[in-house]
Amino acid sequence: MNENCINCPDTRKVVIIGCGFVGSASAFSLMQSGLFSEIVLIDSDNSKAAGEALDINHGVPFAKPMKIYAGTYDDIKDASLVIITAGANQKEGETRLDLVKKNISIFQSIIPEIKKRDFNGILLIVSNPVDILTTVAIKLSGLPENKVLGSGTVLDTARLKYELGNHLNVDSRSVHAFIIGEHGDSEIAGWSSANVSGIPLHKFCEMRGFCNDHDEAMKKIAEDVKNSAYEIISKKRATYYGIAMSVKRICEAIVRDEKSILPISSMMHGQYGIEGISLSMPAIVGKNGVETHVPIQLNNDEIFKLQKSAKTLQEVLNQNNLDS
User: Which of 96, 237, 270, 292 is the most exposed place for a label (fewest CB within 10 A)?
Assistant: First the structure.
């Protein structure tokens, strides 16, 4: 912590609230990353948090020196980053939106505790439905909007790149494409702006010999990406490795002030005609959180679907009568 600044957060300290599959996997991923020198785990079951901390600590000799321990809300005050993964898990047959009431209630108990500690770092929401809960966190925390962001469609976008890389037999890191909108059933693949190392996707597909079935193949890939969480949950009851890596990637952008463009969830103010709801869209992410949204090329159909996605989220939020 900076001794010359009483209220300055410690840039090397992160707090994770929720030690379920996602929270624990995220803590493990962050331990390996070396981004932080102090990781605090908070859970309603303190014994669970202590057990996870002890288990992860045994890997520290293979990583870099750091403190990992079970803590309380009092440990939040000087942290630079608080990550919320707490919430009800998505079960087989449930959509992310089915979790709304349960997880808003959980947030109504967690966020006031954070607010009491005069936390002035960055709040990263990972719990589902992440777009709605990001909006809830903004309203309940009183933090500046740029300092509250959700993991959004960072994972969905990684899934899209993975599927496209397999389809085209090319390194997925050379694929540049976004899933936008809701992190959920109304998400949209932004094909209009998709490219492989600057080459428009449809042209690259032609180069690779995929001329005839391009539209059908892209439709199937988008469906596979959208349904991948359901498939994983049906096979192993939960998803956590992919989202843990997504959390690490977002933290890298923040801690290193990378100004990376990531499709995080943040408040919309008129972009594409959408107002007053958090949505997963590309944005520049750095040490101050969300710097600005990045407009990407979308056709009229994609904009219509994006607006429909936002409307769906707004209606669900309105049904829950959130009092700020």
Answer: 270
